[in-house]
Amino acid sequence: MKFGIVVNEGPYQHQASDSAYLFAKAAIAKGHEVWRVFFYHDGVNNASRLTEPPQDDRHIVNRWTKLAEEHKVDLVVCVAAALRRGIKEENLAQGFRISGLGQLVEAGIKCDRLVTFGD
Amino acid sequence: MSDARKFMFVNRKAPYGTIYALESLEVVLITAAFDQDVSLVFLDDGVYQLKKGQQTKGIETKNFSPAYRALEDYDVEKLYVEKESMDARGLTEADFLVDVTVVSRAEMGALMDEQDVILSF
Amino acid sequence: MLHIINKSPLTCSTLDGCLNTATGGDLILIEDAVYAATRGNAAESRLKAEMGKFRVHVLMPDLEARGLADRLIEGISPVDYGGFVELVSKNKTCQSWL
Question: Residue B46: is it exposed, middle or buried by C-beta count within 10 angstroms (0-12/13-18/19+)?
Fold first, then answer.
């Protein structure tokens, strides 16, 4: 089955990004495809490559990057939401791309299931 | 339109206190441009989004409520307000800045069951 | 439909709103909503009363993280992330009550 995931909250502040990541990993482990993860609202902050958590904490941004590399997950950051919050190409983490809201709608059309994680 | 999916946007949050209502409206407009079957529903504090007479000068924030009136131009005409949520906030249909269909909780639940994709922010 | 709830029933009316409006189906408690699945919380009777209409599940890693895995209300089914994925795939749609 083809899954789309929406993440509406930033990393560390809210559990949404953690929940979304663990859900995505479990879906892949069950043989499903995670076709796209769309980051919206403060969720765009998950894509900042300037993120530096303490050594003993999980690295939420790098975790998404790794998932994208290993399982060809398309990580899309909403351009309008990103620009509002200072996320641009120059500070975008690897594996993410900035694009329009149409990518979210497309996920809704093409995926068998769309699951939202937010506040 | 025959293979259009039924998209429902569930608005349960008030405007201005957080950005969700505004950014949700942006998705609605884009979805309509994709020729999908779009419904907007307002329940709980989401019904406050539709209140007439919003004056945002004093909080130095853009008043985005006129955009709800533009929905018609995008052929988004299915706007539903849950009656119980409206009543609980001392509002009536006359308080809203656009025409809406007021439905009961039971009707709202049934509408949700008809959808292909439900987005809430 | 699968209803996904992530807020504590003690600070937020989201669970109540879902139980009032939704027509039934599967319901999963995740993140801070897992407190609704614990014995003795003020929302227990409300949730129990709806357990005929809704099949209630709780995401155990979230309940364990909060130190309450031993207080699970009888009749609520515990699931891991894999179980969460299965609930999403077996229902035609899902709705996060944010």
Answer: buried
CB contact under 8 A, B30 and A114: no
Distance from CA of C32 to the nearest CA of A (A): 9
DSSP B78: E
Percent of chain B with pLDDT over 70: 98
The pLDDT of residue B54:
98
pLDDT tens for residues A56-104? 999 999 999 999 999 999 999 999 999 999 999 999 999 999 999 999 9
A78 is catalytic: yes
Six-digit token pair at A45?
């902050």
Which ipTM was obtained for this model?
0.97
Chain B residues whose CB is inside 8 A of the A114 CB are: 117, 119
The CATH class of the B6-120 domain is alpha beta
**Residue of A105, A111, A112 for testing the chain B interface, max B β-carbons within 10 Å:** A105
B121 to chain A: which residues are within 8 Å by CB? 8, 40-41, 116, 118
CB of C1 within 8 A of CB of B113?
A: yes
**Residue-range domain boundaries for chain B:** 6-120
Per cent of chain B over pLDDT 90 is 96
SS3 C25: strand
Residues of B in contact with C93 (CB under 8 A): 115-118
User: How much is the pLDDT for B3?
Assistant: 77
Which residue of chain A comes nearest to C90, CA vs CA? A113
Tell me the CATH number for domain A2-117.
3.40.1260.10
| B119 to chain C: closest CA residue | C95
Q: Which domains does chain C have, with CATH numbers?
A: 2-96 (3.40.1260.10)
Residue C43 confidence (pLDDT) above 90: yes
* Domain residue limits, chain A: 2-117
Summarised one tens digit per residue, pLDDT across range B101-114 is 999 999 999 999 99
The Cα of A41 is separated from the nearest Cα of chain C by a number of Å equal to 13
Cβ atoms of C24 and C54 closer than 8 Å: yes
> Are the C-beta atoms of residues A73 and A30 closer than 8 Å to each other?
no
